[in-house]
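Methods: example folding runs. The two proteins below were folded one after another, and each record is reproduced exactly as written to the output file, sequence line first and structure-token line second.
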Amino acid sequence: MSFGDKIIDYMDDIKKDLNELISIRSVSCESSDEAEKALDYMLEKADGMGFITKKVTRDSGHIEYGEGEEIAAVLAHVDVVPAGDGWSTEPFLLTEKNGRLYGRGVVDDKGPAVVALYCLKALKDNNIIPKRRIRLILGASEEIGMTDMEGYFAVEEMPSMAFTPDSEYGICYSEKGIMQLEVSAPRHDGTILTEFQSGNAVNAVPAKAYALVDCTESEDTRLRRYADARPGEYDFIYTVDGLVIRAKGKAAHASTPELGLNMATHLIKILAANFGESVLGSLCSFIDDAIGLETNGLSLGINCSDEESGALTVNVGRVDINEKRCRCLIDIRYPVTVDSSRIFEKIKERAEKDGLETKIMNHELPLLADKNSKIVKLLSEAYEAAAGEKPELYSTGGGTYARTLKNTGVAFGPAFAGDETHIHDADESISTENFEKHARICLQAIMNLSV
């Protein structure tokens, strides 16, 4: 029996508090107030347990236990992406059914945040006084660029070692750089296409798209044939304003765009095949010609890879075209050894050919931690003690708080290979067995950091 097994005694309370936290609709891209409310909930809950708490900025704070000069930390976020459609359960309630826990944030990252808090409580209840201060550092704007940690570390000390339970097991020591761009036109210059809308967040593959087009009956018939030959579901609705097309595909995280079915690019591809790029306007022409259905950046001239972190990926996360706005948001995950400035310049140069402007909305530098560091050693020992096997070291295209730690921290859990968690998609969930397994590993890891 490992010390981590003690967390099972708290599982009922963990689920109760997690349900309350999930019920706070802390979608940071929609409401900073609700995101702050989720942060306040965690700090107030910890204060009631007798821990030292501090709200550092409106969207960051920490919970502390232990003594000493050195700080070891767990970083978690309490904001989430929009729920979207297609859930089989209420997204903002914790639902347990068929051996799984469902709810927006149950994996990313509210579940791990609540587990980490109860790990501190388990140490306290067992009269274990850490020789270094253990901090649970919480943020409320991770999903919109991690400005929460920028503000936090502008005021607070950087921990000597840390992990964030915001990825998968084993240990993620390398994270690709993330560059999120806006490509825009001063106005929509298409003639056939009146409106186009797809996506809620740049860091997710859009599962739905909407287009309003002005076309003849023969063009409509041909358009339907094109749609029948393409993946996805398409509905055609006649209105007084024109033909409305609604398309449905499959969402996925932007770090693995190949796992989704991007309806922004697929619907544009169908429209371009039917009408030609020029009548759709310069922005759609750019998306269709320079990106198309690719997720590797080949047509943009930016495809590349390295041994440490793998291949570059491209995701068109949002497209907004109407009489007031004409833009798309693109998420680029680039290898850790690649010069990001060259990637940006190539995209900018290609967009300028269509008369478009390109600007960086968010840029997160890559992470490359030392495989032989102390934190990797301690987490490896914790995983082996709680799970009975050695963890693998891996790289990801995902972006976590680990990249804010100046290569002193890594991502560690909570998801397990083979468990379809649907992060950033409908029916986000984790098996109850794996949730409890993560809790045991997390407690053992924090125990290892404390002694």
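Second run, written to the same file directly after the first:
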Amino acid sequence: MLKKSKIGAIADTSDNEIIKVSGLTRDFGSGKGIFDFDFSVKRGEVFGIVGTNGSGKTTTLRHLMGFMKPDSGSCEIMGLDCRKNTAEIMKHVGYVPGEIDFPDVGSGTSFLKIQAEFLKVTDREYISRLADMFKLDTDAPLKRMSKGMKQKTALVAAFMSRPDVLLLDEPSTGLDPLMRDTLIELILSEKERGATVLMSSHIFKELDDTADRVLFINNGRQTDLIEKESFSKGKPRTYRLGFRSYEEYDSFVKHTALDIAYENRKYLHLDVSLTENAVNKLFEETAGFDIRYMKFRPFTLEDHYTEILEGGKYSA
């Protein structure tokens, strides 16, 4: 269960929306910035924001942290204006910035101790557990840490107070795949606890595995907002076929009546798209070919991103 908020009744918003962004606009000129952003994040929800570099992900999170003043519109966390009530809001928020710049306080241990005192965190065992999860040597000097070690330190600092709200800007930057999986498990654990998570990412697997809803942005504008439970409904079923020879591959491409969604002759595999009731047709078409493998490819957020925002088909 979510721990009782220090804000008390303010945190128990009647509509259960912990984060609210309304008409948020910040114009940097030359078409750069964010324009008329409108979305909300519910209590206990993992909400993802995905977009290209420079599309507005970091600008949005920096407004939520109260670091930037919008030209128009507003954003709130737990019913409080992010710009006017930053100090109060920060008591309940864990934040991983997109660009990490630690103060000159020596080691990671010193930094985490200062953060713990500021946040009134008394459970030092949990801090140690987080460090162990991420295989973080907190005794290392901050200035000599690699990008990945700095990212791990920032993650421990953000999660150690078990905050009501987590704002994570590209949280897996610099992490290897194993540590990325550890982060995903931690986010899901926080969701189960009842925390509200807003996370920007360009790594679709993170959002596929964690997010309840995902906002797609492009060039500073919202383009699509989808619910993970429903976004793939009605989409064709895609199967990847791997062939043993170029002759088999070329013959299949030439003679098949199936819809080929993607081809990669170099690696002798391709994707075919089927309606839900046409699987038997797939087996009929491949019966006379020497197939190395056949596997179902679920429709992913990356497919959706490519299809909707780039107007093309997925190619991997």
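Comment on the second run: Residues 217 and 223 are 5 Å apart (CA to CA).
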